[in-house]
Amino acid sequence: MEFLRIGTDLIVGFISLLIITKIMGKTQITQITPFDFISALILGELVGNAVYDKEIGTVQIIFAVALWGGLIFMVELITQKFRRTRSFLEGTPRIVIHNGKIDREELRKSKLDLNQLQHLLRGKGAFSLREVEFAILENDGSISLLKKAPFAQPTRKDLNVEGPLISLPICLISDGEVIWENVQHIGYDDNWLKDQMKTVGAGSYREILYAEWKEGEGLYIQKS
């Protein structure tokens, strides 16, 4: 009976957290700020502690997660509606290198030392401070940089080279399953796909591990 209660609480907590995550959006994961990090920790603790507390049931778990998620959502709305609250709730990007010079005051405000700065710069491919013209410490702790002209990679425009057609590859078959909406999107049908499969000696879709189509390059097929 105890295992049934724990299992039920875990399932309810998992579903509740999944719903809250969907409501909060992808930025909770990809652009996590210190506030988002604390929020995620507390959400996990709410469910984790409730699962092993016999006095707390599924209703209390749902209420706690919903209330905390509502508070987070309210903060998100506030930052979207009122621009002045963003610096307090989300933080402000700081320019730690300006015109090739390290800004000590901004480093101090960001609680960042030189070793940490060098580590972040190396992660962006800048192994020497002399390569960097501007560096901005983002709210999520990552760094964005603009290299000096001699160290920046040239673009096709700089070299006067015409680039190829830019297009996204479209997956048509994955693990033997055909994604028919993608096949229809590129203007082909079942007969065309079967003809393409014959070129690699495949007699059925299940023999195909992966197949993608790209404009200008045609179909790429890998058998299982």
Please render the helix and strand layout as text.
Layout: H1 2-24, H2 27-30, H3 34-51, H4 58-81, H5 86-89, E1 94-98, E2 101-102, H6 104-109, H7 114-123, E3 132-137, E4 143-147, H8 156-159, E5 170-174, E6 177-178, H9 180-185, H10 190-198, E7 208-214, E8 218-223
What does this structure look like?
By secondary structure, this protein is α+β, with helices and mostly antiparallel strands. It has three domains: 2-87; 94-151, bsu07140 like domains (CRO Repressor, 2-Layer Sandwich), CATH 3.30.240.20; 170-223, CRO Repressor, CATH 3.30.240. 48% of the residues lie in helices and 17% in strands. The protein contains ten helices and eight strands. The strands form two sheets. Strands 2-1-3-4 form a four-stranded antiparallel sheet. A four-stranded antiparallel sheet has the order 6-5-7-8. Strand 7 (208-214) and strand 8 form a beta hairpin. The radius of gyration is 26 Å and the shape is flat.
